[in-house]
Every structure is written in structure tokens, then in C-alpha cells.
Amino acid sequence: MAEMYFEDFYLGQVILSAGSAKVSAEEIKEFAAKYDPQPFHLDEAAGEGSFFKGLAASGWLTAAIVMRLRVESIKVAGGMIGAGVEEMRWTLPVRPGDSIRTEIEVVGVRPSSSRPEYGLVTTTTLAYNQHDQVVLRSTVNFLAPLRRKA
Amino acid sequence: MAEMYFEDFYLGQVILSAGSAKVSAEEIKEFAAKYDPQPFHLDEAAGEGSFFKGLAASGWLTAAIVMRLRVESIKVAGGMIGAGVEEMRWTLPVRPGDSIRTEIEVVGVRPSSSRPEYGLVTTTTLAYNQHDQVVLRSTVNFLAPLRRKA
Fold first, then answer.
1. Burial of B61 (0-12, 13-18, 19+ CB in 10 A)
2. Which of A20, A117, A138, A149 has its CA 20 to 30 A from that of B141?
3. Is pTM beyond 0.90 here?
4. Interface contact A60-B65, CB threshold 8 A
5. Paired strand residues for B15
6. CB B5 within 8 A of CB B77
7. Phi-psi region of A79 (alpha: psi -120 to 50; beta: other; left: phi over 0)
8. Are A93 and A103 in contact (CB under 8 A)?
9. Is the CB of A81 less than 8 angstroms away from the CB of B39?
């Protein structure tokens, strides 16, 4: 995949993740133990008695998996530099065994006012499970370097 | 710490993290390898030549650490159920050796329209490093159960 510069992004551009990410109970529990140690993310039985009615991934694990899929599907020259989240929603729990894929759409492109050598790309991401249900949606900005230096 | 219900939250309430989270180069690289495999998050030398001018934590690691500090400092009855991110900004890179603490302010409390047994609490979080510089700020919603059932 060729490295992408600001000039390569355009409104309405859609980028699908090359593959999908399988989520295991082990990964859900390991992430939770480190970053979101709540019973429904750590233990099947505790999950059953909770809001989630079963073991569910931390929303921040889902967000991290979505980041990996984004990095794998969009190769920005010099790397994808995050420039903020405009909104993120967890629309359904992610369960052990789920496979997550992403569909990214470019919804904004503008030069950066503070960094003339970069442009700001705004994207909406829909993350789907294997049943084609949306589990996360977000609007996130990143910087991409200009091919023609300002 | 007593478990908190919706009625325990009020506008202007400020909750400081009990402790702080020390971030190591090892944790930065381990998280990056799994969820944000970009050179400036994986390798000191690659970081030097990058936008970040040194090894920097993935913004999603910072967000995950902030989640742990939130969970440790606010014990919601039944667990903290995330209900979306309104905004998140990474204002400074997080570096190996940094210590992160959080200051959370309640900026919204309202009954949930879709779930009558819960209320929606909106909080802004400022995450500081050991130099009292803000490294992340966010506005995040969570659900808290009503003590008096609707």
C-alpha cells in the first residue's frame, strides 16, 4: 500500500479494513485487568448478572482494536497522528468470539492552521461485528503531511 | 469508598484520582504492538525522527489509563457503564516515566429517557502529567442507577 499524503484524501472517500479482528475472552479479560477492571469485563459469571448480561469487552478495548484496524487500512506518510475525537459511541457490546471490521469515510479535509506542513482529515468510522451490526461509531481527526510543502 | 448512585452526582462535583499511574516505555511499546503499531509508539530511535521527537504513548493507551483512573476514583453501583464520548483531545504527548493523574468534574446529570432505572452523568476529565501539564481532556457520559427506582 502506498503511503498517503493529505492530497490523497477527499470527501466521501470510503476505506474498508483489509481484514477483521477476532476478539477472544482472554483479550477482553487481559485488557480489563489492566485498564478497565470492572466485573462485567473480567468474569463471565459476573457479566451474566450485570447490565451487559454476559462478558463484554471494555469500550476502550473496542476503541483500541478499531485504532489497529485504522492504522492497518490507512498508511499515512510519517504515521497517523491523532488530532482528537469529535464523538464516539458504543452501540452494542463486543462479545468473546466477535470479529470486528471497520468502514471509514472521509468527511472533512482542510489545511491545518497551526501546522502549515499538514492537513487535517476528519473521518467517521463504523465498526461492525460478524453479524453486520454496528458496535462502535466515531468521528476522529488525524493529521496528514502535505505532499507539496506549503 | 461507598458505591455511588445517580442521586450522588451533582453539577460542579469534582473528583480527583486517588493516585497516579506511572507509564513505562515497556507499557507504551506493548500497547502499541497490540493496538497502534506505529514506529513512534514502538521504538525510541524511530520516535526521535518523527512528529513526536521521541517515544510517545499511543493516545489510546492514554485514554485507557484515564479509564482505569476513572474506574478507581468513581465507584458506580453495578459498575461504570460508558454512554459515549462527546469529545477527546490529546494535548501533549505522554512519555516514558510520566505519571498521570485525573481531575473529573460533573457537568451534566439527567434521567435517562430510554432506561428509566438509570441516570446519565456527563463528566469532563483533565489528565495531568507530573509537571501539571494537561495531556488529555475529554467529555464522557456514563450511566448510574437510580437509588430510588423510577
1. buried
2. A20
3. yes
4. no
5. B104
6. yes
7. left
8. no
9. no
In this prediction, the answer to ipTM > 0.90 reads yes
Please list, in sequence order, all residues whose beta carbon lies within 8 angstroms of the beta carbon of residue B45, skipping any fewer than 6 positions away.
none
- Asked if the Cβ–Cβ distance from B80 to A38 is below 8 Å, we say yes
What is d(CA A7, CA A57) in angstroms, rounded to the nearest whole number? 37
Q: How many residues does chain A have?
A: 150
Q: Does B30 touch chain A (CB under 8 A)?
A: no
For the record, the C-alpha cell of A11 comes out as 470527501
Q: How long, in residues, is chain B?
A: 150
Q: Evaluate whether A142 touches A78 at the Cβ level (below 8 Å).
A: no
Cell of B58: 499511543
CA–CA distance from A6 to each of A68, A83, B43, B49, B54 (Å)? 20, 14, 25, 20, 23
